[in-house]
Structures are given as structure tokens and as C-alpha cells.
Design goal:
Helices cover 34% and strands 15% of the residues. The protein is α/β, with parallel strands linked by helices.
């Protein structure tokens, strides 16, 4: 690895401080859930609300009692999440921000994880540099914050009032990575078998599965994907810089591709992203490419999904 790539890793890529992969069994088949999938518009609303400054004294209250939400999110919250109450929040105090919502009709729990308020690859990829080789272990990338997030989720699920509660997850950006990790862990964790994992939906998220084309690793990844494609969907706006970086910079530096858990659906907001992508493809220099990513930053915002998921349902 030459010095420019090293500088690129340190200055531009940032994400997993103590990353690793651990061996873990993979289920052959998911248990059937008695609950149906939530509309994507509900998941988007929850993902957007994960950025809201909820207060501790709002825990236990109906979500619609939260004040200060701007339009159009305010209307969507009242129309799509009127049956939910806030049961927990983290506000970034333990390294990540998330909210846990309970459906008061069916007792299911919806966990929503926020990501970056402003896209900054320096705050995304640096931790990926030191990941352990997944060849003899699980291809799922493990991060300290992901482990903390799963611990938080389990603490909520293990409460008496949440016994047997089914689980949904959603998230944006880095929060989408956390949602994928949580979904994967819940399915694999024998101790959580009483909590059916129903559905996961992410928006412009980072991937969670490593693959390098070798038969051994690819077989593991494909086995996981077969299990999760029916229940997990990742929506990405064409031109999202995080998605582009995952497919190019990360693979060039590490030799691994970074895949999303489940299905990936691309949506188009406008055609201007093509010009920026064309400029990126004209150079092979990673340092130059990193600088040329800036015109794509606006495509990472959640606003690009609103027309597609709020007006169509």
C-alpha cells in the first residue's frame, strides 16, 4: 500500500474502531412471523424521527405527543405512527443515536437508528481498515458501536413487558449498517428466539457483509443473503457517495467488497448525479476521487426518499 493510499485511509475513510468478524452459525430457515411487513413509508418516518431531539421524560408517551417536528415529517408521524409510543432512546450517549418505538396494538417493537447528519467519509471508513479477515469466520463486519447497539436492543427486549415482542428495524447511513447488524444478530441469537425478526428497511446505508470472490467466503455470504432477502430491503438513491465509496475505495484498499444484507433497490431522484459520477470515473487516483465526491453529498440526505415513499402510499 503506497503512502497516498495510507493518507487516504487516515484522512478520508472513517468507520469501525475495533472491527472484526467472529464465527457464527447461520440458520437454514427463518421462523414464520405472525405479523406483516410495515409499509416502507412507516420505516422512513421512523428513520427520520431517529434524528429528532427526544427527551427522557417523553419515554412512555405516545409518539404523536412529541413537539417541534417540522413538516412534512409532522404529518407523516401522525398518520403513520399514531399507534406507537417511545420506549427508549440513546441520544448518542453510548456512541450511537436511536429510538425504540412500541406498537400499542400488537406489542411489536420498531428500532430506528440515525446516521450522519452531514455526510463526511472521514467519519465513516477509517475503522474499516483494521478489520479481521473473515475467511475462517463470519463475513459480517462487527463494530464496537454495533455491539453496543445490540446490547441496548437486547436490554429492551428482555424487559418483562416486551416478552415475545416481534422486531422491526430501520436506519439511515451508518444507522442503516446498525439496523442490518441488529437484524442479523437477532436471527442468529438463540437467546432471542422468542422475539421474531419481521422486517428491516434501510436508506442510503453502509453495507455489512464482506466478500472477495473466493468460493469459501462467497458461499458464506450467499447463504446469509438467501436467508435475509425475503425480509430485508436497502433503498439507495443513485449517486449516494457512501454507496459509491463502498463499491470503489473500500474494495481497492482492502480487496473486499462491502455488501448490504438482503435486497438492494436503487431509486433515481434526478439525473445530475451522472455528471459527478462521470468525473469520478475519469481518474484512477483515490485522493482525487475523494475530493470529487463532494458534489454527490446532497444525495445522501433522507429527503430524496420522501417523494418516493410518502406520496406513493
Amino acid at each position: 500500500m503506497n503512502y497516498r493510499v495510507v493518507l487516504f485511509c487516515v484522512a478520508v475513510l472513517t468507520f469501525f474502531s475495533s472491527t472484526g468478524c467472529s464465527e457464527q452459525r447461520v440458520l437454514e430457515k427463518l421462523p414464520e412471523s405472525v405479523l406483516e411487513n410495515l409499509p416502507d413509508g412507516v420505516m422512513l418516518t421512523a428513520a427520520e424521527l431517529s434524528y429528532e431531539p427526544f427527551l427522557a421524560n417523553e419515554i412512555g408517551k405516545q409518539l404523536t405527543e412529541h413537539q417541534g417536528v417540522a413538516e412534512p415529517l409532522y404529518t407523516e408521524m401522525h398518520e403513520r405512527l399514531s399507534d406507537y409510543e417511545l420506549v427508549s432512546l440513546t441520544s448518542g450517549k453510548i456512541g450511537f443515536s436511536a429510538i425504540a418505538l412500541k406498537n400499542t396494538k400488537d406489542n411489536s417493537l420498531l428500532f430506528a437508528f440515525s446516521g450522519l447528519r452531514k455526510i463526511n467519509l472521514q467519519d465513516i471508513y477509517q475503522r474499516l481498515i483494521g478489520f479481521d479477515s473473515p475467511e475462517n469466520a463470519s463475513p459480517v463486519v462487527v463494530d464496537t458501536q454495533a455491539q453496543q447497539a445490540y446490547k441496548w436492543v437486547k436490554q429492551i427486549l428482555n424487559k418483562k413487558e416486551n416478552a415475545g415482542a416481534s422486531v422491526y428495524v430501520t436506519g439511515h447511513s451508518f444507522g442503516g449498517y446498525l439496523a442490518q447488524y441488529i437484524g442479523y444478530q437477532l436471527v442468529q441469537d438463540e437467546k432471542m428466539k422468542d422475539h421474531s425478526f419481521v422486517q428491516g428497511v434501510t436508506f442510503n446505508s453502509l453495507g455489512v457483509l464482506l466478500d472477495n470472490g473466493t468460493k469459501k467466503l462467497h458461499t458464506k455470504t450467499e447463504k446469509i443473503q438467501t436467508l435475509f432477502k425475503p425480509i430485508f430491503t436497502n433503498y439507495i438513491v443513485k449517486g449516494d457517495p457512501l454507496d459509491y465509496a463502498s463499491k470503489t475505495f473500500f474494495e481497492e484498499i482492502t480487496g473486499y467488497s462491502l455488501q448490504h444484507l438482503g435486497n438492494v433497490n436503487y431509486i433515481t431522484v434526478d439525473e445530475n448525479y451522472k455528471k459527478s459520477l462521470q468525473a469520478l470515473e475519469k481518474t484512477r487516483d483515490l485522493w482525487t476521487k475523494a475530493k470529487q465526491l463532494k458534489p454527490l453529498y446532497p444525495y445522501h440526505d433522507l429527503a430524496g426518499f420522501e417523494t418516493n415513499f410518502w406520496t406513493a402510499q
